[in-house]
């Protein structure tokens, strides 16, 4: 059945048909074709007896439209001695017909074996000659251009989420600050993890000699993460507050996994910075060599403006207000220098292991006497949702590629701009391959469409899985993303020990892409606030400077100008295991 029907019919429809027909493949095929491709009487008459005059007229007017004309309107298929007739009447508004008008037939839409000979307009039976053998003819996508234009994404988003706004949240902080335990406990208290599973984690963590890691195992799912006791990759899950639908990303805190943390932070709207209130632990994470500073700088450079600081493990210092105030003051000064506004930063005392002040306001006597603010969940609910660029052309950054059951393969990633519908034809860049979106899944729920801000799984067909890599960008065919190997950017140099010079090899971190590149040219040093040129062609760049530089990548990369797509115009530069600069794309050379 799959050979005959190709990708035009969903797997479930075929399974249902087979079950109804008691595993008789011929009857099941008849049933599917009769339901999927049943023509109206008017179409039937047109197909049965086409006008010779109109056919000859078409042939005379459009002699070059060979590919478009040879697509069969009726395909006869012989299966086990039975002849089946399937109708394929494309809509005049479909995207596929745009290709037909240009004289190109997309293989993904019509993967059948087409006759090679062009039709003869003067023949007794106008139209293409049809083979008697089984020919797979697919119906084109049911999503027409007209339907796509009529979809009001902003209204539909409100309907879909029940009035709740979408928010992408990343949890960052120094290693062992308790990020995974904190958020794992939040998920457990919200009911996202049932008691039986939690009990299993507790028993397994005790056996492994890591009893305090039970809640962390909610988000640290791989064996290596659990064995080592550190988060290594970005864990992703979903939960809801009173007014928000939160996509939670638990980023690794260890210095070795900063590239993974950048990938998570690049997809976030807001962040929770977790710090350890224990004596000596906060200082170790905050001073030179700790990840607290670097993580805060990274998320700010990647566009996060709202931050909640969870002062964790407050139970280990007996909920002392002096310790909380000391940490808040030290962090406050640094975060202000990093570019955060005081009004966009909130401090919440918490205890991730015991669950105090996470989802409900804690009644611990040592806390209530001096803290009357919100709990962590209430603070998350107070975050403002950013404006989604749904009106811009479609852009999705691929964060993972994998094969699943059924045809095609899956890509995961966050839609940065625009929206996509099932049946849409999209362009994958840099391989510049066109493919069809066969299915969309959001938080394990199948959808007909998804929009900017959604972390989705797209099932795609019509392109080889080998050609699609992490870092590829899926975009609108009519407005593709720019590809280049040279571009200019305005960068802010971080606290570096060695000056940056021309020719320095660095690693470019852009969305989910990590690409080796080199600094081709130091163009000028700029004034931090006004952007005025202070010095042209400097010999080197030192810490804290703002500069215009030109970068050269080894392979073509897909970029957008910051002024056009803020979400896709930011990047980071790393060298020798540390982040040396953050920048925005100002000019694409080639």
Q: Can you tell me about this structure?
A:
The chain has 590 residues and is an alpha+beta fold. The protein folds into 4 domains: 2-143, no CATH class; 165-382, P-loop containing nucleotide triphosphate hydrolases (Rossmann fold, 3-Layer(aba) Sandwich); 395-476, Elongation Factor Tu (Ef-tu), domain 3; 482-588, Elongation Factor Tu (Ef-tu), domain 3 (Beta Barrel). It has 18 helices and 26 strands. The strands form 6 sheets. It has a 6-stranded mixed sheet with strand order 4-5-3-6-7-8, with helices on both faces. A 6-stranded antiparallel beta barrel has the order 9-10-16-13-12-17. Strands 18-24-21-20-25-26 form a 6-stranded antiparallel barrel. The longest helix is centred in the middle third of the chain and has 18 residues, at 321-338. It starts with a helix and ends with a strand.
Shape summary: globular
Radius of gyration: 29 Å
| SS strand fraction | 25-35%
Derived from helix and strand composition plus strand pairing, the structural class reads alpha+beta
N- to C-terminal distance? 47 Å
Count of alpha/pi helices: 18
Tally of strands? 26
CATH superfamily of the largest domain: P-loop containing nucleotide triphosphate hydrolases
Q: What name does CATH use for the topology of the largest domain?
A: Rossmann fold
Mean pLDDT: 75
* CATH hierarchy: architecture of the largest domain: 3-Layer(aba) Sandwich
At the first level of CATH, the class of the largest domain is Alpha Beta
Helix content: 25-40%
């Amino acid at each position: 059945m799959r050979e005959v029907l190709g990708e035009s019919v969903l797997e479930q429809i075929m399974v249902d048909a087979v079950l109804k027909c008691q595993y008789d493949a011929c009857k099941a095929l008849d049933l599917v074709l009769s339901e999927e491709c049943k023509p109206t009487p008017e179409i039937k008459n047109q197909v049965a007896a086409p006008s010779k005059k109109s056919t000859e007229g078409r042939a005379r007017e459009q002699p070059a439209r060979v590919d478009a004309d040879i697509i069969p309107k009726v395909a006869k298929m012989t299966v086990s001695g039975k002849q089946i007739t399937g109708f394929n009447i494309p809509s005049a508004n479909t995207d596929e017909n745009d290709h037909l008008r240009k004289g190109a037939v997309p293989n993904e839409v019509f993967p059948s074996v087409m006759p090679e000979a062009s039709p003869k307009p003067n023949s007794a039976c106008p139209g293409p000659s049809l083979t008697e053998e089984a020919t797979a003819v697919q119906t084109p996508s049911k999503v027409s251009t007209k339907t796509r234009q009529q979809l009001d994404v902003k209204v539909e988003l409100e309907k879909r989420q029940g009035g709740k706004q979408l928010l992408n949240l990343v949890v960052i902080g120094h290693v062992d600050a308790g990020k995974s335990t904190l958020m794992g406990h939040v998920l457990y208290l919200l009911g996202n993890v049932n008691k039986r599973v939690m009990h299993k984690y507790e028993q397994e963590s005790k056996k492994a000699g890591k009893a305090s890691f039970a809640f962390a195992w909610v988000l640290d799912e791989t064996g290596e993460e659990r064995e080592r006791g550190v988060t290594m990759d970005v864990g992703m899950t979903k939960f809801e507050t009173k007014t928000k639908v939160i996509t939670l990303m638990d980023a690794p805190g260890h210095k070795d996994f900063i590239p993974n943390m950048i990938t998570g932070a690049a997809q976030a709207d807001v962040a929770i910075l977790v710090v350890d209130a224990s004596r000596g632990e906060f200082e170790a994470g905050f001073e030179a060599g700790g990840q607290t500073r670097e993580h805060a700088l990274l998320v700010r450079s990647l566009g996060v403006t709202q931050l909640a600081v969870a002062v964790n493990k407050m139970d280990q210092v007996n909920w002392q207000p002096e310790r909380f105030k000391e940490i808040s003051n030290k962090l406050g000064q640094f975060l202000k220098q990093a570019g955060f506004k005081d009004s966009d930063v909130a401090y919440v005392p918490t205890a991730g292991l015991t669950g105090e002040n996470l989802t409900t306001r804690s009644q611990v006597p040592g806390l209530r006497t001096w803290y009357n603010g919100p709990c962590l969940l209430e603070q998350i609910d107070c975050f403002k949702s950013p404006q989604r660029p749904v009106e811009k052309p479609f852009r999705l950054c691929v964060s993972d590629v994998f094969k699943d059951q059924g045809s095609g393969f899956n890509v995961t990633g966050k839609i940065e701009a625009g929206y996509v519908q099932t049946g849409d034809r999209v362009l994958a860049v840099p391989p510049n391959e066109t493919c069809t979106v066969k299915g969309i899944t959001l938080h394990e729920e199948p959808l007909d469409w998804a929009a900017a801000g959604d972390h989705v799984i797209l099932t795609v067909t019509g392109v080889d899985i080998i050609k699609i890599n992490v870092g590829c960008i899926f975009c609108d065919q009519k407005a593709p993303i720019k590809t280049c190997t040279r571009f200019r950017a305005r960068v802010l140099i971080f606290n570096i020990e060695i000056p940056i010079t021309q020719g320095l090899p660095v690693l470019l971190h852009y969305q989910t892409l990590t690409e080796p590149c080199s600094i081709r040219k130091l163009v000028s040093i700029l004034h931090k606030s006004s952007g005025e040129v202070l010095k042209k062609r400097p010999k080197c760049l030192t810490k804290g400077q703002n500069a215009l530089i030109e970068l050269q990548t080894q392979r073509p990369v897909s970029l957008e100008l910051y002024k056009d797509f803020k979400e896709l115009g930011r990047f980071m530069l790393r060298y020798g295991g540390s982040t040396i600069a953050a920048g925005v794309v100002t000019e694409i050379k080639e």
